[in-house]
């Protein structure tokens, strides 16, 4: 498989394919033409010694310092060396690869003015699985992801470090071993490498993919809990949601309603005297749906950002214009990522509440802590402790980073988006939610076992069977940590999410249970 970049049609799924699955890339012919046209204008302006920010001047607060043409190449090297100030552990390879493919595609839009050989070399590094060693911290998400981008750029000139086949090597040594010559950057090249939202955008693309999987998983796991807690299907009746038609709510309700269709458990309590369920069951579609709509906001931002011009200055070859602006500012992404983090945090929060009910005998009407030997056995008591710890972590992480700002560069850069913080926090929230949903899934599966011989619906039975393929029922206390990891892996691989895609509306709105 090979992905052709054109600067206009990159999708989040494409970023995932390159970042996680090693899909190879190339630059399309029309994109090559745009790259060359913009570069020709940059070269002409430099030859004519025009005063253009970043081409013949310093950057940031040094914007008024003229750089003679003879010093242009040294300026490019200096920019990368001086901006590579990241600290902390290295970013995962998938994040660096995601940032690289987004940067190349944004170059392909044709407004950067970068030398085509820079874009081509980044393609080569990606296709040969050379990953820059990029420290985790240092970006403020405003003038682009400056520090991470500088560490990436160092590799192009034979500096910095790389990861090659999982081993850390000096950039110069890795290039030499692969027969790749370091680049000598020309005017504007380093600035083009530094400026831009590519690391935030790459991280957001991976997050969107994971979040969409978690949204489907949450509906499946909630349906399992509805079964185990003998909840009412009425709360998911399409007539209820039709009069409040938020898109996410409609989809979530229809999915849970379809997942529980044909449930013998639901049929067994049609005539019970329970009027309505607790919010964590009855309002699951409203909460999950709002979370889905929050994630959809991120999708809409990415639809634009992945194929946007985020450099500065921007080069408009057809107009023979080089314009200085602020498209590198990460505010659109910062707000969307913070919103996604809050949505995912709530997805985990309501999941923990359902797990709590499953474990609490006087609420669930199941044996306390889902064990028939309460007292001698603690059963699944401690699952909720871990879930509560993760929910608390998410509540702290979901505090928006985008409402914070500190000025930099002698107050020339006086408002920063903190979008890289938003991206990192949102990714951690998603990882925590994977575990919370896995814990609820274990509890719900055990609850369904304890209701035997009553049987769940066809699709919830499939979800229950998928869990039981990995984790056996809990008869007596045993070490649970390996089983928790197996359940998390089930969530991460998308096994439960795939069952969510099989749930289609179509059940009658009548006879929907107690």
Proper CATH architecture of the largest domain: Up-down Bundle
Which range does the strand content fall in? 5-15%
Strand order in the largest sheet: 4-6-7
CATH H-tier superfamily of the largest domain: Fumarase/aspartase (Central domain)
Order of helices and strands: EHEHHEHHEEHEEHHHHHHHHEEHHHHHHH
- How confident overall, as mean pLDDT? 92
Q: Compute the number of strand runs.
A: 9
The number of helices is: 21
Assign the CATH class of the largest domain. Mainly Alpha
SS class? mainly alpha
Please indicate the count of domains.
2
Any idea of the CATH topology of the largest domain?
A: Fumarase C, Chain A, domain 2
The description of the largest β-sheet is:
3 strands, antiparallel
- Helical fraction: 55-70%
Q: Rg, please?
A: 26 Å
What would you call the shape?
Answer: elongated
End-to-end C-alpha gap: 51 Å
- What ranges have pLDDT less than 50 throughout 5 or more consecutive residues? 506-514
Description:
By secondary structure, this protein is mainly alpha-helical. It has two domains: 2-196, Fumarase/aspartase (N-terminal domain) (Fumarase C, Chain B, domain 1, Orthogonal Bundle), CATH 1.10.275; 204-406 and 417-502, Fumarase/aspartase (Central domain) (Fumarase C, Chain A, domain 2, Up-down Bundle). 56% of the residues lie in helices and 6% in strands. The chain has 21 helices and nine strands. The protein has helices at 12-21, 29-47, 72-83, 93-108, 116-127, 146-156, 171-178, 189-194, 198-228, 238-242, 247-259, 264-268, 279-282, 284-305, 331-359, 361-364, 381-397, 419-450, 458-470, 481-492, 495-502; strands at residues 2-5, 24-27, 87-90, 130-132, 135-137, 161-164, 167-170, 314-316, 321-323. The relative contact order is 0.13.
């Amino acid at each position: 498989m090979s992905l052709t970049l054109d600067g206009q049609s990159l999708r989040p799924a494409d970023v995932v394919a390159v970042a996680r699955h090693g899909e190879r890339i190339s630059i399309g012919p029309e994109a090559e033409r745009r790259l060359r046209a913009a570069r020709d204008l940059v070269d002409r302006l430099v030859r004519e010694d025009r005063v253009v920010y970043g081409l013949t001047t310093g950057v940031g607060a040094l914007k008024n310092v003229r750089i003679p043409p003879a010093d242009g190449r040294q300026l490019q090297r200096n920019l990368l060396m001086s901006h590579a100030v990241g600290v902390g552990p290295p970013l995962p390879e998938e994040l660096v690869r995601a940032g690289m493919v987004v940067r190349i595609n944004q170059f392909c839009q044709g407004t950067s003015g970068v030398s085509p050989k820079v874009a081509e070399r980044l393609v080569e590094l990606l296709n040969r699985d050379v990953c820059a060693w990029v420290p985790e911290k240092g970006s403020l998400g405003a003038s682009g992801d400056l520090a991470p981008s500088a560490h990436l750029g160092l590799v192009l000139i034979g500096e910095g470090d790389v990861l090659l086949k999982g081993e850390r090597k000096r950039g110069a040594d890795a290039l030499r071993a692969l027969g790749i010559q370091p680049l000598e950057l020309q005017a504007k090249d380093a600035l083009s490498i530094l400026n831009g939202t590519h690391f935030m955008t790459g991280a957001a693309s991976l997050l969107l993919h994971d979040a969409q999987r978690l949204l489907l998983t949450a509906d499946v796991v909630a349906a399992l809990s509805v079964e185990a807690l003998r909840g009412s299907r009425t709360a998911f009746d399409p007539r209820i949601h039709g009069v409040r038609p938020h898109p996410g709510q409609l989809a979530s309700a229809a999915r849970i309603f379809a997942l529980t269709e044909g449930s013998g458990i639901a049929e067994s309590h049609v005539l019970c005297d329970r009027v309505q369920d607790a919010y964590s069951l009855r309002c699951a579609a409203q909460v999950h749906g709002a979370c889905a709509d929050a994630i959809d906001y991120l999708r809409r931002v990415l639809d634009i950002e992945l194929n946007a011009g985020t450099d500065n200055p921007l080069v408009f070859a057809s107009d023979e214009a080089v314009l200085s602006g602020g498209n590198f500012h990460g505010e659109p992404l910062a707000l969307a990522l913070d919103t996604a983090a809050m949505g995912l945090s709530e997805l985990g929060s309501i999941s923990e509440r359902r797990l709590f009910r499953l474990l609490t005998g006087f609420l669930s009407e199941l044996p306390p802590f889902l064990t028939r030997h309460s007292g001698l056995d603690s059963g699944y008591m401690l699952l909720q402790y871990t879930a509560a710890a993760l929910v608390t972590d998410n509540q702290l992480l979901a505090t928006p980073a985008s409402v914070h700002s500190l000025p930099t560069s002698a107050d020339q850069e006086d408002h920063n988006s903190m979008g890289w913080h938003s991206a990192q926090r949102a990714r951690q929230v998603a990882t925590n939610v994977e575990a919370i949903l896995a814990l609820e899934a274990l509890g719900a599966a055990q609850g369904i076992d304890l209701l035997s011989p009553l049987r769940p619906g066809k699709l919830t039975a499939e979800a229950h069977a998928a869990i039981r393929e990995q984790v056996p029922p809990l008869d007596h206390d045993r070490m649970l940590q390996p089983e928790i990891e197996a359940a998390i892996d089930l969530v991460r691989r998308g096994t439960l999410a795939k069952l969510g895609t099989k749930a289609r509306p179509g059940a009658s709105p009548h006879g929907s249970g107690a």
